[in-house]
Amino acid sequence: MGEQMNESGRLRVLLADDQPLLRMGFRLILEGEDGLEVVGEASDGADAVRQVGHLDPDVVLMDVRMPTLDGIEATRAITGSGSRARIIILTTFDLDEYAFAGLQAGASAFLLKDVAPAELVQAVRVVASGDAVVAPRVTQRLLEMYVRGAGPAVSDGPGTPGTAAPPAAAPAPRDPLLEDLTPRETEMLEAMSEGLSNAEIAHRYFLSEATVKTHVRRILTKLHLRDRVQAVVYAYETGLVTPSNPDY
């Protein structure tokens, strides 16, 4: 679950957005950085899925609103295909339903379209490494979406059927895979679900960061998960994490 690598030693990025100017701007930012390479551009979700199959990128910057196939369904198709590409969802509004639908579909992070250049570059590098962290405020929203009840319907515009977040009125049955985790690994997963980084987990449990990283890698392997962000989504969906405070 370490950093993705390819023969060139550069991180390969695919841009998927129906706005040419936005793609151009992101390309200029990313190609101005050492070790990053934009290998392709897609103008809709279906094209993004095809290009991932041909180009094998490390990271896909995926807009949610695109013709033919929206970014959520494209993300679901790419992650479901077994592709190693990690996906960053691009949204217009912070903490909107698209961001969380994207994470549920298998994305590793989300960013606002007006993200600062340095933050964009950092996000691509972190997501490629598999060490992306769900921020605490995102954790709170995920709790609301996955534990307290169904979230708002997600659609790609007027006339497009929406996909509601899964209802969570009844607790999900405990996944048998959780029984494969050691007590320490279960603690690590719960800490990850709070949005803690490896350094913060190490500080809490008086461990080295290297030890925490080993635990995280084992958790992802045992639960068949792509990265730590997907581990957080998994923890909520399986009922491992529940609100401890009704006013959370």
Cα Rg: 18 Å
Q: Tell me the number of strands.
A: 7
How many domain units? 2
Low-confidence runs? 152-169
What is the C-level CATH assignment of the largest domain? Alpha Beta
Which structural class is indicated by helix and strand composition? Answer: alpha/beta
**Strands of the biggest beta sheet: in what spatial order?**
2-1-3-4-5
Count helical runs.
10
Main beta sheet: 5 strands, parallel
* CATH H level, superfamily name of the largest domain: Response regulator
CATH fold category name of the largest domain: Rossmann fold
Shape field: globular
Whole-number mean pLDDT: 84
Domain HTH luxR-type: 174-239
Biased composition (Low complexity): 157-167
Pfam family, one: GerE
GO molecular function: DNA binding
Walk me through this protein's architecture.
InterPro entries: CheY-like_superfamily, NreC/VraR/RcsB-like_REC, Sig_transdc_resp-reg_C-effctor, Sig_transdc_resp-reg_receiver, Tscrpt_reg_LuxR_C, WalR-like. Residues 153-175 are annotated as: Disordered. The chain is of the alpha/beta class and 248 residues long. The chain has two domains: 11-129, Response regulator (Rossmann fold), CATH 3.40.50.2300; 136-237, Rossmann fold (3-Layer(aba) Sandwich), CATH 3.40.50. It is built from ten helices and seven strands. The protein has helices at residues 20-31, 45-55, 71-80, 97-105, 117-129, 136-148, 183-193, 198-205, 209-223, 228-237, and strands spanning 11-16, 36-42, 59-63, 86-91, 109-112, 153-154, 163-164. A five-stranded parallel sheet has the order 2-1-3-4-5, with helices on both faces. Strands 6-7 form a two-stranded antiparallel ribbon. Strand 4 (86-91), helix 4 (97-105) and strand 5 (109-112) form a beta-alpha-beta unit. Helix 2 (45-55) runs parallel beside helix 3, helix 7 (183-193) crosses helix 9 and helix 8 (198-205) crosses helix 9. It starts with 10 loop residues before the first strand and ends in an 11-residue tail after the last helix. Mean pLDDT is 84; it is low at 152-169.
